[in-house]
Design brief:
Chains A, B: Pfam families: Pyridox_ox_2 (PF12900). Chains A, B: This is Pyridoxamine 5'-phosphate oxidase. Chains A, B: It comes from Nonomuraea solani. Two copies of one chain form a homodimer. Chain A is an alpha+beta fold and 139 residues long. Chain A is built from three helices and eight strands; from the N terminus they run E-H-E-E-E-H-E-E-H-E-E. Chain A has a single domain, classed as Pnp Oxidase, Chain A (Roll), CATH 2.30.110. The longest helix of chain A has 9 residues. At the A-B interface, strand 2, strand 3, strand 5 and strand 6 of A face strand 2, strand 3, strand 5 and strand 6 of B.
Chain lengths: 139, 139
Amino acid sequence: MQLDSSGLQVLSREECLCLLAATPIGRIVFTDRALPAVQPVNFCLDGDGIVIRTSIGSKLAAATRRTVVAFEADEFDPEMRTGWSVTAVGHARAVTDPAEINRLATLPLFPWAPGSRDHYIVVDAEQLSGRRIIEGRPV
Amino acid sequence: MQLDSSGLQVLSREECLCLLAATPIGRIVFTDRALPAVQPVNFCLDGDGIVIRTSIGSKLAAATRRTVVAFEADEFDPEMRTGWSVTAVGHARAVTDPAEINRLATLPLFPWAPGSRDHYIVVDAEQLSGRRIIEGRPV
């Protein structure tokens, strides 16, 4: 088991992808008018790509166009004070190819929030890192 | 009840602070070597300030020195597809005043991760916004 300088377990790329595949909600991190911004989204993994749905006119759609974003998912146990987190960093792209849109529409990805959200964004997980607190400090 | 253009309930500053006060984990969003970065942290609310503990030499301590960061906390129910999120944006500052460090040391803020974490960072919640999905779409 590999530990980082903080004593956290370093997760492999495969472990990171497994955890992301089993998690419905993550947070996309981007820049909005020169300020750091973060928005929770439900998502679906498609190979190494993180697929999210939004509306074409959303702030998220505008801010993530042809840029590098981060995407984070995690799970924590407040009782045991353990948990894991996975962060991906990569280019975000709006999906415009009709064949790819049709394929992504078959994924089990249904928006939680109301409104029409038929605009797909894919974040390529070019860098993927994950950490786990292995030894909790129970409350 | 105020809704935004996406049909999500807009939370007041007071509601946002109440939710943050009852939540142990959030995510700090910053820039690391010109790339978007995000790191989960446990935290404690101190007035309008979000207090986190880290080690003096951490990437987080270096990257959040005298800069504007975002801080996000949320809670989601995957069964009901409901949830809320709160985002604060404001200046982060390292606490160097010994009297303030002594006061912050009395807060119920105990690091989950191993290692010494006696460096305090306070994020002033200058902008605070929150949203809630009020009508879930059960699975």
